[in-house]
Amino acid sequence: MTDPTTEPANGGAPRAAEQHGPAGLTLRLDGPAAPATLPEARAAIDEIDAALAVLLERRAGIAAVVQRLKPVGGFAGRDPERERRIVEAMALRAPSLGAERLSRIMAAVIEAGLEAAEDRSRRTV
Ligand SMILES: C=C(O[C@@H]1C=C(C(=O)O)C=C[C@H]1O)C(=O)O
User: Where is this region: Disordered (predicted)?
Assistant: First the structure.
């Protein structure tokens, strides 16, 4: 079975997002081998951070939609069991970080998303 996070769905040709991704991003999720020099390593980190920023923005937008769809949204409707399952699934893909560190990372991501959702809903009333 192919891994949807690393394998192009069309059997090898670059996907549209790899050719003309958001903000000109062309990051491959499976990435090249470790960079050899400090500038190369920093450039690789900058590229990953640019992709992370786009994904975090997208995630926050979708999390805001979820808050409107749930019977109780926002911080009041926080769902620790759902958050635990998210971290557990991510830990399978990020074994060197592991569940404990990912849990701290995702708590910050989720809280930032909920705050941004509150800001959005305040601006639209
Ligand atoms: C998005 C939801 O609301 C909250 C935010 C979550 C998230 O950002 O992933 C997960 C669970 C909830 O605490 C949800 O319930 O799915």
Answer: 1-33
